[in-house]
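Example S7 (structure tokens).
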């Protein structure tokens, strides 16, 4: 086995409630024997933390979020950069990128790379970026400046909101890149001649945290106003989650069908969605719970009858990869209803282990919801099949094993 190098992992922000799949991977790598230092481009804004964040031992170093806030660190990084052998190559690359992306953001990433290269925590021997947009820009610039190799984990929004030229440059520069959906994998392989350096790696789920639900699922069928069917969704209230479509679908359900809807998560669109629910006349059936800790989310999966997520492609191209909440819900025998966007069909097969409808179609979603509400036997069948698929194919240990092998193979080559 080659000597394992300290990995500096560059993240957009840490810790983040919406990115527990990343935290889970970091913890898995630590348990596999890798030494990590986390480099965060932003300070945390979430008021809550998941338990997994407290188990990660890696030190966290925060770069200047905005260059003007810490000018001394940035200037020291700039002056130090001229002493590095990669300085000329970095400036050449930056002035190649700048005309294609004339923005403050481009300068910010360069300044953050200067700070990282000068301060270089814990004598890191490898760079790894989570997300192929801005974190990978900082990572690649720091790699060019220092000569330390880099690798990347790409996910969803970062792939689909980045221009192809930017993705292509990074795919050709990184030693390898992994992504979590076949949709993203296929797209990135069209942008580089180094197709053998792009890998598909599902995040999976830490099944130790999501043990099988030992209880019984309810037989509610929407006929009893005292005991309505409980529909759950977990996700940030942002455009790509399609909550407006979900609210429209709920409003289309027959008036005599008894249901309640609970939403877990924060997000910029909550106020607008609450107003929309009132306009649609369904506000009294909805509970907005805000962000909750992981153990509370697990409890809600176990109490609910149906999980719904109306994924869509946002106007700017942003979309989910394979939402981890669908994997989590499925692990608890909770039948899921979602859309045929990105990686969702890689988990859910229509009428086999879930219900999958076209995006942006409240009518189709309402039909699927009505079917699931009225048929507890169908819910039981779909939920059992979904759990079997998750436990057979989405155990996160497989992803950790794959990443471990990729790191060690590259280190062997560069030893």
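Recovered sequence:
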């Amino acid at each position: 086995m080659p000597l394992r190098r300290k990995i500096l992992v560059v993240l957009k922000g840490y810790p983040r409630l919406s990115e527990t799949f990343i935290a889970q991977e970091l913890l898995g790598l630590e348990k596999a024997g890798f030494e990590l230092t986390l480099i965060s481009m932003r300070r945390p804004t979430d008021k809550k933390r998941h338990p997994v964040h407290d188990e990660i031992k890696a030190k966290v170093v925060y770069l200047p979020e905005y260059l003007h806030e810490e000018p001394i660190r940035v200037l020291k990084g700039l002056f130090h950069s001229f002493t590095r052998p990669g300085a000329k190559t970095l400036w050449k690359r930056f002035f190649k990128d700048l005309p294609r992306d004339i923005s403050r953001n481009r300068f910010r990433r360069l300044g953050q790379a200067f700070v990282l290269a000068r301060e270089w925590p814990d004598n890191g021997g490898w760079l790894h970026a989570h997300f192929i947009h801005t974190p990978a820009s900082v990572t690649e610039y720091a790699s060019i400046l220092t000569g330390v190799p880099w690798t990347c984990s790409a996910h969803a929004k970062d792939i689909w909101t980045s221009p192809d030229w930017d993705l292509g440059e990074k795919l050709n520069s990184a030693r390898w890149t992994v992504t979590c959906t076949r949709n993203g994998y296929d797209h990135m392989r069209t942008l580089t001649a180094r197709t053998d350096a792009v890998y598909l790696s599902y995040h999976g789920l830490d099944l130790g945290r999501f043990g099988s639900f030992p209880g019984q699922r309810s037989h509610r069928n929407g006929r009893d106003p005292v005991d309505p069917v409980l529909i759950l969704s977990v996700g940030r209230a942002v455009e790509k989650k399609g909550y407006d479509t979900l609210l429209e679908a709920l409003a289309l359900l027959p008036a005599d069908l008894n249901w309640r809807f609970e939403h877990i998560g924060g997000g910029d669109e909550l106020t607008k969605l609450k107003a929309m629910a009132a306009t649609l006349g369904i506000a009294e059936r909805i509970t907005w719970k805000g962000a909750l800790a992981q153990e509370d989310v697990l409890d809600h999966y176990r109490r609910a009858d149906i999980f719904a997520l109306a994924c869509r492609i946002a106007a700017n191209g942003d979309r989910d990869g394979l939402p981890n909440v669908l994997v989590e819900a499925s692990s608890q025998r909770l039948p899921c209803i979602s859309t045929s966007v990105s990686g969702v069909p890689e988990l859910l097969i229509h009428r086999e282990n879930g219900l999958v409808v076209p995006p942006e179609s409240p009518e189709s979603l309402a039909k699927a919801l009505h079917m699931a509400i009225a048929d507890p036997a169908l819910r039981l069948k779909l939920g059992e099949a979904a759990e079997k698929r998750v436990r057979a194919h989405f155990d996160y240990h497989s992803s950790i094993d794959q990443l471990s092998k990729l790191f060690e193979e590259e280190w062997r080559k560069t030893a």
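Notes on this example. Residues 266 and 297 are 13 Å apart (CA to CA).
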